[in-house]
Amino acid sequence: EIVLTQSPATLSLSPGERATLSCRASQSVSSYFLDWYQQKHGQAPRLLIYDASNRATGIPARFSASGSGTDFTLTISSLEPDDFAVYYCQQRSDSPPGLTFGGGTKVEIK
Amino acid sequence: EMQLVESGGGLVQPGRSLRLSCAASGFTFDDHAMHWVRQAPGKGLEWVSGINWNSGSIGYADSVKGRFTISRDTAKSSLYLQMTNLRPEDTALYYCAKARGVDWNYGMDVWGRGTVVSVSS
Predict the structure, then answer these.
(1) Closest Cα of chain B to A23: distance in Å?
(2) B32: which strand partners?
(3) Which strand (E) or helix (H) includes residue B108?
(4) What is the pLDDT of residues B80-116, one digit of tens each?
């Protein structure tokens, strides 16, 4: 089973700063099945990035993502007040078949 | 506007059963796989189950395999999760989510607000 480890667990930054979030897989993951989600407090998650690097509909350009194999990164170029939230990566595997989420990274206001 | 509305949650004793429903609107239900994802209080997201567009392929997390059954009704544009032999560790907010494609190996691009399931004696 592929395990996704997100780091850091918490990122304390100020508005305007750059945020870099990491998602590391225990085995190689196809880029076509690595997504990122944002979850604000008390709300349902929202799809940010699909297939490792493609922004979902309506997602601002300050969000970008990259990676392949076992290492993936989500970058927020300049934090807006609305961006302080928890971010999850998620992947799909064939063996065993299923989807898994990382443990999440909380981006909080410093 | 695409919308998913979950229902059926509640307080149930360990070992009992519960059926969750999810009503979909604003998109062609037949064209998309669907998922159930849960979130225990204060914890992260856990994928529970997925079903492809025509119910021909279904997947479950190991934690619920053999106890939960996912299904869908095209005529009613609805998704279901039959949960049996419930355990305290199944306590969570259960989200219904639309997959980006026809297969459940695609991630989720539309989410409902969730329905709460509490398992306690």
Answers:
(1) 14
(2) none
(3) strand B108-111
(4) 999 999 999 999 999 999 999 999 888 899 999 999 9
Number of A:B CB contacts under 8 A? 61
Please give the Cα distance from A64 to A86 (Å, whole number).
Answer: 16
For chain B, the farthest-separated pair of C-alpha atoms sits apart, in whole angstroms, at: 41
Q: Which of residues 90-109 of B touch A (CB under 8 A)?
A: 95, 100, 104-109
Mean pLDDT of chain A: 94
Residue A97 to residue B8: CA distance in whole angstroms: 28
Task: Tell me what pLDDT residue A30 has.
Answer: 79
Query: In the prediction, which pLDDT does B34 show?
Result: 97
- pLDDT at residue A31 tops 80: no
Residue count of chain A, please give it: 110
Contacts of A40 (CB under 8 A, 6+ apart): A85, A86
Give which of B63, B59, B62 is closest to B50, Cα–Cα.
Answer: B59
Can you tell me whether residue B94 is helix, strand or coil? strand
| Per-residue pLDDT at A93 | 81
Contact of B102 with B74, CB cutoff 8 Å: no
